[in-house]
């Protein structure tokens, strides 16, 4: 598995095509501010980021995992947005 700081084209090695994905804070960063306001939190905790990471990871499909992707497509993450429990 590989996620880089920049997007890369798919790579075929020994007949297997893998799709390197871009590791990017766009998956969780835009929701941090509104989430803080909604939950009336006074600080951003490690637990909040771990929960966000868990939700992102659960948005990756089996097909995407089979292709070596560690992040869901942007379209899928948009459909996965939901309110986290108040912590």
Topology:
Elements: E1 3-4, E2 11-13, E3 16-18, E4 21-22, H1 29-39, H2 46-58, H3 62-66, H4 74-80
Parallel strand pairs: 1-4
Antiparallel strand pairs: 2-3
What does this entry look like structurally?
The protein has one domain. It has helices at 29-39, 46-58, 62-66, 74-80; strands at residues 3-4, 11-13, 16-18, 21-22. Strands 1-4 form a two-stranded parallel ribbon. A two-stranded antiparallel sheet has the order 2-3. The chain starts with a strand and ends in a 7-residue tail after the last helix. A hairpin with a 2-residue loop joins strand 2 and strand 3. 41% of the residues lie in helices and 11% in strands. The longest helix is centred in the middle third of the chain and has 13 residues, at 46-58. The mean pLDDT is 79. It has 4 helices and 4 strands. The chain is α+β, with helices and mostly antiparallel strands and 87 residues long.
Defining key terms:
4 strands, two-stranded parallel sheet, two-stranded antiparallel sheet, 87 residues, alpha+beta, 4 helices
Question: How large, in whole angstroms, is the Cα Rg?
Answer: 15 Å
What is the overall silhouette?
elongated
Q: Proportion of β residues?
A: 5-15%
Query: What is the count of DSSP helices, taking H or I runs of 4+ residues?
Result: 4
Helical content band: 40-55%
Number of strands: 4
What separation lies between the terminal Cα atoms?
31 Å
Numbering strands along the chain, what is their spatial order in the largest sheet?
A: 1-4
- Integer count of domains: 1
Biggest sheet descriptor: 2 strands, parallel
How do the SSEs run, as a string of H and E? Answer: EEEEHHHH
Summing up helix and strand content along with how strands pair, one would put the structural category as alpha+beta
Mean model confidence by pLDDT = 79
Uncertain regions spanning at least 5 consecutive residues: none
